[in-house]
Amino acid sequence: MEFESLQRRRSSSVSANQNNASIREKRPKRSEVIAKNKTIEELIKTARAEKDHLAPFPDFRRFHVNGLSVCLKSGHGNKLSSPVKHYIQSLLKLNMEGPYGSEWPEEEKVKRKEMVLPEAHYVFVHEVANSNADEMTTVLTAAETSTCLEDSGPLVGFVQYRFVLEEEIPVLYVYELQLEPRVQGKGVGKFLMQLVELMAQKSRMSAVMLTVQKANVLAMDFYINKLRYIISAMSPSRVNPMDREDELDQLDKDGSSY
Ligand SMILES: CC(C)(COP(=O)(O)OP(=O)(O)OC[C@H]1O[C@@H](n2cnc3c(N)ncnc32)[C@H](O)[C@@H]1OP(=O)(O)O)[C@@H](O)C(=O)NCCC(=O)NCCS
């Protein structure tokens, strides 16, 4: 299966790449390299230990758009209930069996293992039951709008992400972004990616990365043309043009920072 690795990288990393020549001339001391690696390890450790990455962004807990009202909840791979695990598996199958084709059975096994790992972080999207987007804003109190209540409506999608080291760069890696077909095309995906980028910035990650199958034309269009992610220099397709995987990366729209 062909993939693209996409990435949105902070400008500091980009300018570092642009200055490769001067870096070569003046190699950092071993002690500086060790200190830098230690700092990066600490960043990742701290980000992974954070219990609720949504907490600093109360305005993102709820989203009303195009007649749809959703609220968001954080989750962890090793704390998923059986119904949630089942939901994730079903939605993955629904959305991804087509793009993966004959490779799906093998890929499904990999995804089942990945989804429950302790380093897998989640943002779950719940539909707010019986909501009228316009009325919601006036009926709910400030406290209510900033939380996703236990009795919130059904799950309609999720993002699964991790904090990892990619080629010595600390990144927030989006493993999955999955929405039910009935809530796609309403702005939820874009909203979730904005949130994920803010989380990456808050945790001082240098980039947001993800992998898309080339056959998933709509998702490629979403990331590259709508969100302006770019194909990462680390993408398998850059090494082997026949590879069907592409890792994507997104440069800042204004060339500054997230
Ligand atoms: C890909 C996905 C996450 C995008 O999320 P979404 O909520 O549907 O996308 P949004 O509504 O936020 O769309 C953002 C932009 O992309 C466009 N877009 C999104 N889906 C589109 C589609 N199917 N066809 C055409 N345009 C689309 C929207 O028009 C919008 O453009 P605008 O900003 O100019 O108005 C979602 O469609 C999905 O879950 N797809 C199935 C699973 C999948 O492929 N995931 C990605 C795997 S890497």
TrEMBL record:
- Which keywords belong to this entry? Acyltransferase, Cytoplasm, Nucleus, Transferase
> Which Gene3D superfamilies does the entry link to?
3.40.630.30
Name the residue ranges with Low complexity bias: 12-22
- Provide the GO MF annotations for this entry: histone H2A acetyltransferase activity; histone H4 acetyltransferase activity; protein N-terminal-serine acetyltransferase activity
Question: What EC number(s) would the UniProt record show?
Answer: 2.3.1.257
Establish whether keyword Nucleotide-binding is in the entry.
no
Similarity comment: family membership: Belongs to the acetyltransferase family. NAA40 subfamily.
Query: Catalytic activity, per the record?
Result: N-terminal L-seryl-[histone H4] + acetyl-CoA = N-terminal N(alpha)-acetyl-L-seryl-[histone H4] + CoA + H(+); N-terminal L-seryl-[histone H2A] + acetyl-CoA = N-terminal N(alpha)-acetyl-L-seryl-[histone H2A] + CoA + H(+)
**Which residue intervals define the domain N-acetyltransferase in the entry?**
140-223
Q: What is this protein called?
A: N-alpha-acetyltransferase 40
Q: Please give the InterPro entries that the UniProt record associates with this protein.
A: Acyl_CoA_acyltransferase (IPR016181), GNAT_dom (IPR000182), NAA40 (IPR039949)
- List the gene name: LOC100500318
Instruction: Give the species.
Output: Glycine max
User: Does the keyword section mention Repeat?
Assistant: no
> Which compartment or compartments is the protein found in?
Cytoplasm; Nucleus
Q: Which GO terms describe its cellular component?
A: cytoplasm; nucleus
Q: Residues annotated as region Disordered? A: 1-30
